[in-house]
Specification:
36% helix, alpha+beta
């Protein structure tokens, strides 16, 4: 924890390696859809970053993380983003206490087995399959959490403008290409983020003639007040240096054209808020189609 407070990226990665599957598995156990589990995972990571100083003396983060994760799951349910019939129990909790305790015990057993010798690991697997309900978060989600830590270290302090990190919820490139398919040319990349009270749609498209890409996007207020996004200033940054800049139209939509493929940060300045997308992989991928023999 102290190393995380000092801004040690590797220490944060180790923390995610230890507790990430617990956070992720609780979301699945609550029957949340994948995009909401991604939202919960990143929300919990942000709360953890903000509370590092207070938590540094704790020798066991499990109870605290469990409580915070359940609170974030309940928050989505209360916002009617999740079907109450799928997420929630008869007593109004998102996960019955017995089911939660069983999951935590399984996680503890899996965590212990991962650090012990092979005979004990085999015994653990043979007497209950402790890992069956313990799921590892996907690599793209872990990368987002690492990027979030990097942003949190460098975000402006004492700024009158509210800084809002964007959580990646859906990425059309998250699914791997299938075997037995062949290339048919670059395909657009569709991404959905949540940044505080906004959803942000992004589309990355390949420009065949120029061998460059266009980035199109639109922040959408969840409260339906489009006035907040009108003529927002949009800036694409490469290692803190402006690579492209534009202004959104009267609907909040914008386009950054003629961009070289690469990894960027994207900043959208609203009236009194600033949305940040960290480590945006602005690339296009060659899709596949079935190979016909």
């Amino acid at each position: 924890m102290n190393r995380c407070l000092r801004g040690d990226d590797r220490a944060w990665e180790v923390l995610l390696e230890r507790y990430g599957n617990l956070i992720y598995s609780i979301g699945w156990k609550c029957h949340l859809p994948p995009e909401d589990i991604a939202d919960v995972f990143q929300s919990v990571c942000l709360v953890l970053m903000e509370d590092l100083e207070r938590l540094k003396e704790k020798t066991n983060l499990t109870p605290w993380l469990t409580t915070i994760t359940l609170q974030q799951c309940r928050h989505l349910v209360e916002l009617d983003q999740v079907d109450e019939d799928l997420a929630g129990s008869s007593d109004g909790s998102v996960l019955p206490e017995e089911a939660l305790q069983q999951l935590v015990q399984q996680w503890s057993l899996t965590e212990s087995a991962s650090t012990t010798d092979e005979p004990l690991r085999q015994l653990t697997e043979s007497v209950g399959g402790a890992s069956r309900e313990i799921l590892d978060p996907p690599e793209w989600l872990l990368r987002q959490a690492v990027s979030l830590f990097a942003w949190h270290k460098t975000k402006p302090r004492g700024n009158a403008v509210k800084q809002i990190p964007a959580f990646l919820l859906v990425d059309s490139y998250a699914e791997g290409q299938l075997a037995g398919f062949r290339s048919v040319g670059p395909m657009p990349r569709q991404m959905l983020y949540r940044a505080g009270d906004y959803h942000l749609n992004l589309s990355i498209n390949h420009m065949e003639q120029a061998e460059e890409i266009d980035i199109m996007g639109q922040p959408l207020p969840l409260n339906a007040d489009l006035g907040a996004v009108v003529e927002a200033d949009v800036e694409l940054l490469k290692e803190s240096t402006a690579a492209r800049a534009t202004k959104a139209n009267e609907f909040g939509a914008f386009i950054l054209d003629g961009v070289q493929e690469g990894t960027y940060d994207l900043k959208i300045r609203l009236k009194d808020e600033e949305i940040h997308i960290m480590k945006l992989e602005a690339i296009v991928r060659t899709p596949q189609k079935p190979v016909v023999n």
